[in-house]
Amino acid sequence: DAKTTQPNSMESNEEEPVHLPCNHSTISGTDYIHWYRQLPSQGPEYVIHGLTSNVNNRMASLAIAEDRKSSTLILHRATLRDAAVYYCILRDIGGGSNYKLTFGKGTLLTVNP
Amino acid sequence: GAGVSQSPSNKVTEKGKDVELRCDPISGHTALYWYRQSLGQGLEFLIYFQGNSAPDKSGLPSDRFSAERTGGSVSTLTIQRTQQEDSAVYLCASSLFVGGTDTQYFGPGTRLTVL
């Protein structure tokens, strides 16, 4: 599986934007970029995914570099509820054995009031 | 609609006992996954069911672990002769493949403690 690299932790203030980076220099042309997050004492929660173009949904935006070797998850206005571990994961659209999610260590986001 | 549910939410057992963990996926989701998460660790894939295909059991850590999915819906993860290292949160997820990829929806997990 192509690997991703994320900072171990980041800090933000409430109501400010947060940019969570992810490097995936070995990404293949068939890999989707997925983001999940895990709030304390809960199961992981889907956030957003994309392939080539930037994506927006009600939770966040995903900015994908033109060469696809990196991406950034953007939370437009952080709230205390956004404090979680954020995981950037590559999923091969070809399926095969890549259906399972391979979670790395993710980025622990702390939101200060 | 209803999300993925798991039961029990907490299970405390003695070493050597068998346990069964249940997962009710989202209705209509053809794929079902089991993961586990030990304290302070990342998620570890255990097993994957997709429709009527043979499950991928490649993540099961030992032959004490087994899982089945009846009628393409409810799944049960069974751990026989539990050991202390089996203590973890066991998470179930379900998904539906659309447009070449899928989104996995996770249940709240079952926290297993083996004394």
Commentary on this structure:
- The complex is a heterodimer of chains A (113) and B (115).
- Chain A is built from no helices and nine strands.
- In chain A, a hairpin with a 4-residue loop joins strand 5 and strand 6.
- The mean pLDDT of chain A is 90.
- In chain A, the strands form two sheets. Chain A has a five-stranded mixed β-sheet with strand order 1-9-8-3-4, with no helix packed on it. A four-stranded antiparallel β-sheet of chain A has the order 2-7-6-5, with no helix packed on it.
- With 113 residues, chain A is mainly β.
- By secondary structure, chain B is an all-beta fold.
- Helices cover 0% and strands 50% of the residues of chain B.
- Chain B has no helices and twelve strands.
- In chain B, the strands form three sheets. In chain B, strands 2, 4, 5, 8, 11 and 12 form a six-stranded mixed β-sheet that branches.
- Chain B is globular, with a radius of gyration of 14 Å.
- The mean pLDDT of chain B is 91.
- Classes of the chains: A mainly beta (113), B mainly beta (115).
- The A-B interface holds A 32, 34, 36, 42-46, 49, 91, 93, 95, 97, 99-106 and B 4, 31, 33, 35, 42-43, 45, 48, 50, 56, 58-59, 91, 93, 97, 100-109.
List keywords for this structure.
heterodimer; A: 113 residues; mainly beta; five-stranded mixed β-sheet; four-stranded antiparallel β-sheet; 9 strands; B: 115 residues; six-stranded mixed β-sheet; 0% helix; globular
Q: Order of strands side by side in the largest beta sheet of chain A?
A: 1-9-8-3-4
Category from helices, strands and their pairing of chain B: mainly beta
Main sheet properties of chain A = 5 strands, mixed
| Helical residues, percent of chain B | under 10%
Largest interface (CB within 8 Å) is between: A-B, 21 and 25 residues
Low-confidence stretches of chain B: none
Oligomeric nature of the chains: heterodimer
> How would a textbook summarize the main sheet of chain B?
6 strands, mixed
Q: Number of DSSP strands of chain B?
A: 12
- Report the uncertain regions of chain A: none
The shape of chain A, in one word, is: globular
- Binned, the helix content of chain A reads under 10%
Outline of chain B: globular
Report the average pLDDT across residues of chain B. Answer: 91
Number of helices of chain A: 0
Instruction: Give the beta-strand count of chain A.
Output: 9
Mean pLDDT of chain A: 90
From N to C, what is the helix and strand string of chain B?
EEEEEEEEEEEE
